[in-house]
Amino acid sequence: MAAVKADTKSFYREVVQATIERIAATLDEALDLEALARAAGLSPFHFHRVFRGMVGETPLELARRLRLERAAFRLSRTDAPVTDVAFGAGYDTHEAFTRAFKASFGTSPSGFRQKGYRRTGLAATCGIHYDTAGGVPPFIARDSGGHHMQVDIVEMPELRVASVRHVGPYNQISQAYEQLSSIAGPAKLFQQPGAALVGLYYDDPDTTPPAELRSDAGILVPASLPMPAGLTEQILPAGRYAMTKHTGGYEQLGDTWGRLLGEWLPASGHRLGPTPSFELYRNTPMDTPKDQLVTEIYAPIA
């Protein structure tokens, strides 16, 4: 088992390291996030959760930071016009570059150059910084204690879900749940055996424009029950899942996902399966204080 765990940890580390090297080598190219996920052999949702959990930054955040570090190097060691440095960092305007640079370095690009600053690296727990020689050292995996979190490997039966699609910011999915409830209530779906609300999320909110995020608000329903008009049937495959419980507000669920997939998973000896991840809500804000909300999150295990 120890060898399996080592192989699994090595697999995810190699996937992330290769992605970091690819980003560092193509700073002047637009970041194709779906291509990065395909190269890693993972779904976009799973890939970005693993990457963010292990590195502490999303691929997009890493690329932006490295471009800013490169810009700082050019400001401190060359006479290139600030506008050229801004365009080289991927900013369309001098003003946008100045805002981003000042937020990161505490001074404007011109001020940075005039004061003769030599420090070009920004804070990064992963240890990866812009290198003029193009080298990329092994990254330092994030460790916030996630590999010690309580996770159960559970065998789940096939689950049938009646759902409403939501496209837009995840924090607005309540609109879809309201629509779901308006149909599920009269259809008595909440009174069916095993009824529980389900959330399915298909895109990573750190890398997908909010208006394009896809998710489904759903409820578990028996296989024999006719599907009410206005709801879409989805089937969650039977199989093994890694399950952990999140207690508290929904706005912290992203951090729990990051620790599960970015810290626990690489150390667990398991690999992700190809089926969707999902969330089960054991209570709701309608009848439960925020700090007592219980969400079970499920990631498929190969």
Describe what this molecule looks like in 3D:
The chain is built from 9 helices and 8 strands. By secondary structure, it is α+β, with helices and mostly antiparallel strands. Among the domains are: 54 residues, Arc Repressor Mutant, subunit A (Orthogonal Bundle); 153 residues, Alpha-Beta Barrel (Multidrug-efflux Transporter 1 Regulator Bmrr, Chain A). It has an 8-stranded antiparallel β-sheet, with helices on one face. Helix 1 packs across helix 4 and helix 4 runs antiparallel to helix 5. It is elongated, with a radius of gyration of 22 Å. The model has no long low-confidence stretch (mean pLDDT 91).
Percent range for β-strand residues: 15-25%
SSE arrangement, N to C: HHHHHHHEEHEEEEHEE
Amino- and carboxy-terminal Cα gap: 16 Å
Low-confidence stretches: none
Number of helices: 9
Q: Quick one: overall form?
A: elongated
Radius of gyration: 22 Å
The strand order across the widest sheet is 1-6-8-7-3-4-2-5
What is the third-level CATH name, the topology of the domain at 148-300?
Multidrug-efflux Transporter 1 Regulator Bmrr, Chain A
The CATH first-level class of the domain at 148-300 comes to Alpha Beta
Mean pLDDT: 91
Helical percentage = 25-40%
Structural class: alpha+beta
State the fourth-level CATH superfamily of the domain at 148-300: Regulatory factor, effector binding domain
Largest sheet: 8 strands, antiparallel
CATH arch. level architecture of the domain at 148-300: Alpha-Beta Barrel
Count the E strands: 8
